[in-house]
Design a protein that fits this description.
The protein is mostly helical. The chain has 2 domains: about 110 residues, Helix-hairpin-Helix base-excision DNA repair enzymes (C-terminal) (Endonuclease Iii, domain 2); about 110 residues, Hypothetical protein, domain 2 (Endonuclease III, domain 1, Orthogonal Bundle), CATH 1.10.340.30. It is built from 12 helices and no strands. Helix 9 packs across helix 12. The radius of gyration is 24 Å and the shape is globular.
């Protein structure tokens, strides 16, 4: 009797079994939802790849391939429209085609070249320090790790991820206002802060698609998926969008 009573008393109650099953179902549901989002995100990337050449998006003016030019342009682009950034970058690169020549320019010279980008005086001081830092601490080469990039003057997580993804092809997701807003509108994430958006997208976007997410989404945001009155009828991913927040 002692053995039987001990065995009976050690069995989980019906309510605890139900709780465990509920937890298990919740876990499986979360996995299933994540897989659904991953499939949808993959289809969004493929659709935007096809549409990108047809979009007259200012982001297409930004440099690609050259780590130094991508880094400097990304620093200039903060709080600045891409056409203004592209023009300022061209003027700057004419006199500072590499980190060494940038380091030799005085902040006043840089500010004259990059005007009228937002906060141009502050950015001029940061770019002067940026050139010197790259030369002194990285042998004149733009670093290719998030840790080293974040040590550079004027470089935050968005700029660092732009460099990693667009200059080095690394799986990094740069989150700006377009990426945060549209990723939420699509229903892929439910976030308010850039770091939350980055982490949420990293969980569902296959690594092979992460590097191009910023460029594709920014192009969409600049031409079709505007903050107010988005042009949903002509959107290439309208069939994949939950249209969150769209009246």
């Amino acid at each position: 009797m002692w053995f039987c009573s001990r065995w009976v008393s050690s069995r989980p109650s019906r309510s605890s079994v139900s709780d465990d099953v509920g937890k298990g179902n919740g876990f499986l549901t979360a996995i299933a939802q994540s897989r659904i989002l991953t499939r949808r995100a993959r289809r969004i990337v493929l659709a935007l790849r096809r549409a990108y050449p047809l979009l007259d998006a200012p982001v297409r003016l930004m440099p690609r391939g050259n780590p130094y030019r991508i880094l400097v342009s990304a620093v200039l682009s903060t709080r600045t429209q891409d056409p203004v950034t592209a023009s300022a970058a061209r003027r700057l690169f004419a006199l500072a085609p590499d980190p060494g020549s940038l380091a030799r320019l005085r902040p006043t010279q840089i500010s004259q070249l990059i005007y009228p980008v937002g906060f141009y005086r502050t950015k001029a001081r940061l770019l002067s320090r940026l050139g010197r830092s790259i030369c002194a601490e990285n042998g004149g080469r733009v670093p290719d790790s998030i840790e080293e990039l974040l040590k550079l003057p004027g470089v935050g997580r968005k700029v660092a991820n732009i460099v990693l993804s667009q200059a080095f092809g690394r799986p990094a997701i740069a989150v700006d206002t377009h990426v945060r807003r549209i990723s939420n509108r699509l229903g892929l994430v439910s976030t308010t802060r850039p770091i939350e958006t980055e982490r949420g997208l990293a969980r569902i976007l296959p690594t092979a698609y992460q590097a191009e997410w910023n460029r594709l989404i920014v192009a969409l945001g600049q031409t079709i998926c505007r903050p107010a009155r988005p042009r949903c009828p002509v959107c290439p991913v309208r069939h994949l969008c939950e249209q969150r927040g769209v009246a």
